């Protein structure tokens, strides 16, 4: 449910298709300037960008307003990485995870385990978003529409905090312990290294040996 006090800028931001993975930051958290500590080093025009993010009107040329808009979007992303580490942030992400809004692991033996947004760095503009599977522990590229999201907007720790606090939601299957066994006509196939066959080898003269 959308917070009735949420600024219009945030409402529009969350409606965009490429921002589907983001949760809504509570207006109280958003407007508490303490939560922005240190972010001024990463966002150009921080003060006006923050004012725009909080719903205030900014005066200036179209070029300057575009500049502030980009700063506000970046600031929301960086605040988002902090918010999803809070109890309420994890709860909102949990609602998305339950409906597999973050997607499902493509590995067959993971049984459609839900993916979680993750990053290889907490520093802005270093890496793009990746998706983490808590079942096979592998990383995957997100769909193209989300491929340009800065990984710092979700951070390195969120996915692992989520798994620790919601173990009941994660598929228990360990795909590392399940291996596909190739077979041919009902017989298990040897999967080890095969030595070079003799030049006069003929399939018609060969035979199958059932592996016990």
From TrEMBL:
Record keywords: Kinase, Transferase
The cross-references to Pfam families, in alphabetical order and at most eight, read: CK_II_beta
Per its UniProt record, what InterPro entries does this chain match? Casein_kin_II_reg-sub_N, Casein_kinase_II_beta-like, Casein_kinase_II_reg-sub
Question: Listed GO cellular component terms?
Answer: cytoplasm; protein kinase CK2 complex
List GO molecular-function terms, semicolon-separated. kinase activity; protein kinase regulator activity
Q: SMART domains, alphabetically? A: CK_II_beta (SM01085)
Subunit record text? Tetramer of two alpha and two beta subunits.
Q: Which family does it belong to?
A: Belongs to the casein kinase 2 subunit beta family.
Q: What is this protein called?
A: Casein kinase II subunit beta
